[in-house]
Amino acid sequence: MKKSNIIMLLAAILPLGLFLFPLWKITLEAPQYPIPLGMYIHINDFSDANPHDIKNINLMNHYVGMKYIPDAIPEFKIFPIGIIITSVIGLLIAFKGNYKWFLGWFILMIAISAAGMYDFYLWEHDYGHNLDPKAIMKFTNPDGTQMGFQPPLFGSRDILNFKAHSYPQLGALFLTLGIATGLIAYFIGKKNHKKSLLM
Amino acid sequence: MKNLLKLTLALVFVLFTYTSCNNSKSSDNKSGALASNVAEKVYVAPGEHDEFYAFISGGYSGNLTVYGLPSGRMFKEIPVFSQFATSGYGYSEETKPMLNTSHGFIPWGDSHHPDISQTKGEIDGRFVFINENNTPRIAKIDLKTFETTEIIEVPNSAGNHSSSFVTENTEYVVAGTRFSVPIPQRDMPINEYKGNFQGALSFISVAPETGNMDIKFQVLMPGFNYDLSHPGRGKSHGWFFFTTYNTEEASSLLEVNASQNDKDFIAAVNWKKIEDYVNNGGGTMMPADYAHNVYDEHTHTATSTMKKEVRVVNPVDVPGAVFFLPTPKSPHGCDVDPSGEYIVGNGKLSANLTVHSFTKMLAAIEGEKFDGEAYGIPILKFEDVLAGSVEQPGLGPLHTEFDGQGNAYTTFFISSEVVKWKLGTWEVIDRKPTYYSVGHLTIPGGNSGKPQGKYMFAMNKITKDRYLPTGPEMEHSAQLYDISGEKMELLLDFPTHGEPHYAAAMRADLIKERSQKIYNLEDNKHPYAAFTDDDTKVVRKGNEVHIYMTTIRSHFSPDNIEGVKVGDKVYFHVTNLEQDFDVPHGFAVLGQNTSELLIMPGQTKSSVWEPTKVGVWPFYCTDFCSALHQEMQGYIRVSPADSNTPIKWSLGEDIE
Ligand SMILES: [Cu+2]
Question: Which residues form the signal peptide (chain B) (predicted)?
Fold first, then answer.
């Protein structure tokens, strides 16, 4: 097996780390929570950073009219299938395909990840803006529009008395590494191809 | 943070000296906290934690209070033997059984000597045991939750004072009787006390895993007063030592009649020997009535079981198990040093402090050098067991603790002081006054093989001029001393609640790591729990109405209840659905004739309310729980006894 194909094999396997480690983490800090509240987003689940955190986030958020974080979202069915399919494709081209396919896989993965991030953004936006009109507390921005409570997609932001942090976790690292390795496999494959043509 | 404090203090000091330069008098006087940095030694900065927990008994309050050291801040009052309206302990349906006894429901107690469980002679921080003197009982408090989880009544006992000290692997908690009584109890002339009354020393086994208590056996001793006790440790593990007074066996005017003998005894009990005897079928079962109350953390409910018999042992039937060590005069405290060699008998009417040697005691027993016997129990010769004595250290020695560095600290009630002396040489090293009339003193890890001799605190009976006069009755006072150096240094006065009789203290980190923050709702097995608003309901059973209610920030469910009638017995079963640390909810209804409830996250508690008046009565949350705490309320409608208002309940809507 060619060196580039072995690297491609690795690229196809790495994203499966998403099934072992969380993808993302949102943390909420406030003075009355010496241990910050937090939730992990996995490929197929939400989970508490500390026991009962999601319940306590829900309880707190209902004051401003935010919905409860659901037990499951449709993406939890779609994402795992997507990752399994792309990994299988990656494995197939690692065994059978040439380096040009590797680039194709890389582009596919970028596209899927971007779509995923966009979906995540939409969900966060809805969660932070689609508020109960009977909310106990209502806040407006300086310009008079209703204040949203959307956590940042990436990075940190102050939301009322909370500081919200949103950062990728180990699962996201595996996915990124897999995608990057796909691109590396392409370049190595291309280089070797040129070498073999010259010889 | 400490540097900042030093800087501030230094700055203050500089300013102080600068301004006083303007005075004609110079500022040589360096007394007080600033000069010696004493304030810094007890200062625990905001957000920082105390190094030690101290569990101080409340005497007649029946409770146990938890303090931090070195700050002297009170953190919690744990109800044990007394009803406690703050939380509903002893008032709620679930906790009423905790105060059940063979004499019926007893709403108060007189708590004395807390002691922390041990493993291999070291404090393990699992449980605190504490005795109730008046109606003899021993309680166990779980240090995971700081809740009283078990209380066992002690039959054949009266004035449960030489208690509740534990052996070095918490094999037993001991409960010795202060007053001897007829055993079994019977109607007889009091002046026939001598020779007819007996003293029971109870050995309560503690199951290693669960901590469940059970009276394994009682030793029926001669009719003396058994005052205090301590376990042997290390080389003397397997023995227990009890001080006695009134070896005269007087029943009247004891202050004179029980102070006649030049020497009373320390009873040395080889419990291992008696345990073997019992394990081989020794002793006899005697009819006895006593309550065993156990709190179940899953049903959040206590049950009270009446026991019908107890195993008693006549010490004469177990040769070599019990001996008397003559000790001058009316010894009170009985304290064993960390090595287990020295047994300090604090003769409260004696000019000297008497210390016995365990090694010498064994040799004397071996040589059978007896000085007669009392009721068949051999009396050893005073000179044969004496290790030494501290000559004229003060007036009225009561209690001794040890720092693990070979030093002992004894309180003197009459001369109001603590005296530090050296084991083995018996020389006095230091003495410091206390304010005033000191009883017990505590060194963290005191009753163990490994004292943590950094601090010592004395518990005083009289407070006088130490605080703002709040009189006539004032809270008693504890005083904290730094004992890390050669000389003791008084650091702090702090008030305590009730009578601070004795205390057990330990490093905080052992408990902090295991502290339980909430009760898991999934583990709640309370028969009347409601886990969601959909589970809530109101059920009538004859004239009983059971309300399955939930609380969460910031509402009750249901919050409108109708169909209750005058003469009904209304049970509010309230489940707190919160799962966040330190978010209890309260419950109270107008005219409540028991007490409010304070319900911890994940817990269910029940309160009975017997409405006597027609009307619409509010109920509300008593614990400020959230921004909308004030809105956390509801109404219950009470109709006349003969009405037929149907049962209805609702939340978030009007009743049609
Ligand atoms: Cu509340």
Answer: 1-22
